[in-house]
Design brief:
Strand content: over 45%
Distance between the termini: 60 Å
Shape: flat
Length: 110
């Protein structure tokens, strides 16, 4: 019964959005002089067969980007400075576990 109610709710929501006559204006509206952070995370499960042998890998990548909005003109065009604040990657595969984090200094010989 819960699935039916959920499915009906989704159907009503979709029909409302699809048949709405008013347009929705989606824009990034940053304010001049403000700074913002954006975090992006990508998770991949990779399966491949090479020469008949199955190889599976799991990979996670994470980036934090800082944005400083310098100015916004009358048309909403923004002058933004973007800086990578940190990057992180972890991978598990046939060769074992590998990890990198820009916020942690390397351990061991360079």
């Amino acid at each position: 019964m819960k699935r039916v109610i959920c499915a009906l709710s989704v159907a009503v929501l979709l029909s409302t959005v699809c048949f709405a006559e008013d347009k929705i204006d989606l824009k990034l509206r940053l304010k001049a002089g403000e700074t913002y952070n954006m975090k992006m995370v990508q998770v991949q499960d990779i399966g491949q067969t090479i020469n008949g042998q199955q190889m599976n890998m799991k990979q996670t990548q994470e980036m934090v980007i800082g944005m400083e909005c310098k100015s916004v003109d009358a048309n909403g065009n923004m002058d933004i400075i973007m800086v990578y604040k940190s990057m992180k990657m972890a991978m598990d595969g046939p060769m074992g576990h590998m990890e990198f984090d820009s916020n942690k200094p390397p351990v061991g010989p360079n």
